C-alpha cells in the first residue's frame, strides 16, 4: 500500500505525530509520503495513493486553514478511499474538555464535506516557553478555562500508545 499523510502544524507537535505514524507505517512494510500542508506542490499526484491520513492541530478552535482548504478541495477523492483524521488539541487531553475536542472535528467534517473512515482525538503539547503573551493568555484562559497548567512550563500530552494503536487499526482496515 502507498499512503499519504498530510499534516498541518503550528508549533511542531503534529509534525512529530505525523513522523511517528510514518515510521510505524514503514515498519509495517507499507510506503508512505509525508506532506506539510504549508508546502503543497501542484504536481502532487493524489491518484497514486491508496489511503490517506490527515493530521492537523487546533488553534483558536480551528484546524489549520491550509489543511481545511486541501481537504475541502479533495473531499470526494478522500471519501472514496480509506482515510483517517487525527485531530490534535489540548482539549483532547484534558478531563472534561472532550466535547470541545469533538466539536472541532464535527465542524471540520461539516465545512470540508469529508467523512473520514476513522478519527482520533489526540492530545498535543503545551509550550509555554515558546508562546508570546497572547498565545499564553489564550491557552490559559480560553482553552484551559483558568485551570492551573501545573508547575512545569512545557508538557507533552500526546498518548503515543493510543496513536500506535490507531495507526495499526487503520492499516488493518485497508488490508
Ligand atoms: C495560541 C494557541 C491557541 C490554541 N487554541 C486551542 C483551542 O482552541 N483548543 C484546543 O483544544 N487547543 C488549543 N491549543 C492547543 C494546541 O492544539 C496544542 O498546543 C497542539 O499541540 C498544537 O499542535 P502543533 O504544535 O502541531 O501546532 C492552542 C494552542 C495555542 C498556542
* CATH architect. name: 3-Layer(aba) Sandwich
Overall pLDDT score: 93
* CATH class descriptor name: Alpha Beta
Distance between the termini: 8 Å
Name the CATH superfamily assignment.
Answer: Flavodoxin domain
Report the sheet-strand fraction: 15-25%
- Oligomeric category: single chain
Main structural class = alpha/beta
What is the CATH topology assignment?
Rossmann fold
Helical residues, percent: 40-55%
Low-confidence stretches: none
- Element order: H for helix, E for strand: EHEEEHHEHEEHEH
Q: How many whole angstroms does the radius of gyration measure?
A: 16 Å
Small molecules bound: flavin mononucleotide
Total helices: the number is 6
Number of strands: 8
**How many discrete structural domains?**
1
Main sheet attributes: strand count, strand direction, barrel closure: 6 strands, mixed
Shape summary: globular
Throw out a few tags for this protein.
Rossmann fold; 175 residues; 41% helix; two-stranded antiparallel sheet; single chain; alpha/beta; binds flavin mononucleotide; 6 helices
Task: Explain how this protein is built.
It is a single chain. The protein is an alpha/beta fold. It has one domain (2-125, 157-174): Rossmann fold (3-Layer(aba) Sandwich). It is 41% helix and 25% strand. The strands form 2 sheets. Strands 1, 2, 3, 4, 5 and 6 form a 6-stranded mixed β-sheet that branches. α1 crosses α6 (160-174). The termini are close together. The structure holds flavin mononucleotide. Flavin mononucleotide binds at residues 9-14, 57-61, 88-91, 100, 124-125, 131, 135, 138-139, 143.
